[in-house]
Amino acid sequence: MRTLRVIKAEVIKTMKIWLTYPIMLLFWGIFPLMWVLPFIFQGKAFVGGLESESFKNLTGTANYLSFVLLGAIISTYIFSGLWGVGNALREETYWGTLEYMIVSPTHPLIILVGKTVVEFLYASVVVFIQSLIAVFILGLRVGINQFLPVALIVFLLLVGFYGLAIALAGFTLLIKEVHGWVRTLEWVFYLFSPIRYPVEINPITKTISLLIPLTYALVAVRAIILLNKSVLDLTKTLLLLGLMDVLFLGTGILLFTYLEKQTRKVGTIAMH
Amino acid sequence: MDALEIKDLTKKFRRGKGLKKKEILALDSASFAIHEGEIFGLLGPNGAGKTTLVRCIATLLIPDKGKIFLFGKDVFENSLWARGNIGLLTSGERTLYWKLSAVDNLKFFAALYGMTPKERDKRIDYLLELLGLKDVANERVEKYSSGMKQKLSLARALLHDPKVLLLDEPTLGLDPGFARFIRNFIKEELREKYKKTILLTTHYMEEADELCDRVAFIDKGKIIDVKSPAEYKKEIPHKEVLEIKFIGVIEKSAIEKIPTVESVSLFYEDDITTLKIIARHSEDILSEALNIISKDNNKILTINNLKATLEDVFIYLTGTSLKEDTRESLEE
To answer: Which of B14, B94, B107 sits opposite A95 (nearest CB)?
Structure first.
């Protein structure tokens, strides 16, 4: 009950602060989908439309636009988590409030769970808007029966990524730097996982992509939506994602706990 | 049982990289105890180790050595329990959510202290009334003056009704009216009415003199002595304090060489130099001191023979003025 109260208080506090910056809110609500547009224009310029045979040979679907839209939507979820959770404690240091949170009898990990929930809710709203635009304006076809399997895959993906974000939050606490880390991760994912293009195009990207959980989730979501596969066809992927969740979340929590203690030792909690 | 017991506390900070790497001893085997219900002052110049000590007690910093006991329990072994029994107030405006109102700030922190909505609302109402913030309770904190922000920070420190309060330079940077309000509040409400145990750090000797039952002098991380303000003043009963203000610069060592001078401090502010000399008889040294000052065409402004204050005792014991900045790094 107490934990729920902390999470609720964190959600309300963050929402109220966000609402004082309406332009920023509007910007971040729309911006994550904007980068899809150049891909649509490029596709049209290269092949004269949004369907390509060579693309089909690599991915199983000729529909380039749907491929990119799904990449955009799923990656919004994870990048928003990485930025948000990784940066959340840093924001509190800027406001000067972090010390007062840490000095309370609530475990810092619970505070971070609160921040994770806030980011999840925010990302869900953005993804919902993106999905509406993708379906009703850009013509992405999604069946109602596909919603639950996709939600399950996204959930499994997010749990692992929030583990990574929690570890990042710990590093941020200690070394006061988050942008470089998240930017690097972002570009590693853009380059080595099939967010914007099929990684099979190149043997190096194909091999490295196998180490990134996002690859499995994207392949599975596209298989369900674009190739009409059933969730039963993807049992191996689900198991693998589940296993990665345990690994990432466990490591994330352990790292955060260790780094938070280190921060108390070196005395840099309130530093910018 | 003592409310708070500090045993042999040592904290070093390691700063810089490579050849510039150095170790700063912020706390050097500090030990003292605070009785339940007393206001205990920690008096020392900037950089003496006061904030480091407070941060260790609040569990924000883990010491290299030593123990801290809160009502007999080790605070680091029972950190969540200890945090629930401690209220912290520091100086500085940036400790609140400026985009939120006073009520929203307090509601958020109440959740972190595990308060139910019912007890939270009652307590917030009471504290805002007590601290005179009721009328601005729903206004954003960014519209508050520094003093109002400090009052709200005090309300936050008292939110969970802690047994022990750590007040770190609570009046620093406040205008005299707000500083007076905070001092009266500490004295009349927190001590007299609610019998709180308070650790007050300050480098204002009048504040320590007025509020504290006992005071620890701290300098360069070491606890020099612990006594009541009255007992401290008895330390130099047969000494006189000569204060000369002038425009110009002199060497401290030139004054120290005058026979019968026991302690000297020099402090510069707004182009005015304040020289304080502790000696057995001030008239014995006055003419020689004036000669030294006038030698370089310095302009003498005032000469006073003063009663010994806590600051004079501090200078007498440490050779350091409370107004000096003894910081070795910005971190302390």
So the answer is: B94
Nearest to B95 among A97, A105, A107 (CB): A97
pTM given for the model? 0.82
Give the Cα separation of B294 and B4 in Å (integer). 51
Q: How far apart are CA B123 and CA A42, in angstroms?
A: 61
Distance from CA of A174 to the nearest CA of B (A): 13
Note whether A6 contacts B100, CB cutoff 8 Å: no
Which CATH number describes the domain made up of B2-232? 3.40.50.300
Instruction: Please report, as a single letter, which amino acid is at residue B207.
Output: E
Residues in B lying within 8 Å of A, measured between beta carbons: 11, 13-14, 52, 55, 58-62, 80-81, 83-84, 86, 88, 90, 92-100, 104, 107-114, 140, 156, 331
pLDDT in tens, chain B (332 residues): 799 999 999 999 887 777 777 888 999 999 999 999 999 999 888 888 999 999 999 999 999 999 999 999 999 999 999 999 999 998 877 889 999 999 999 999 999 999 999 999 999 999 999 998 999 999 999 999 988 999 999 999 999 999 999 999 888 878 888 888 889 989 888 888 889 999 999 878 888 888 999 999 999 899 999 999 888 877 776 677 888 999 988 888 888 888 888 888 888 887 889 898 888 777 778 888 888 888 878 889 999 887 777 877 888 787 777 666 665 543 43
A149-187 core/surface letters (b: 16 or more CB in 10 A; e: else): bbebbbebbbbbbbbbbbbbbbbbbbeeebeebbeebbe
Q: What is the domain partition of chain B in residue ranges?
A: 2-232, 237-307
Describe the strand order of the beta sheet including B272-279 as a list of residue ranges: B261-269, B272-279, B240-247, B299-306
Which H or E element spans position B84? helix B79-84
Residues A103, B98: C-beta atoms closer than 8 Å = no
Give CATH for domain B237-307: 3.30.70.260
Instruction: List, in sequence order, the alpha helices (H) in chain A.
Output: 2-19, 22-34, 36-47, 53-59, 64-95, 98-102, 108-136, 147-175, 179-192, 203-209, 213-227, 235-266
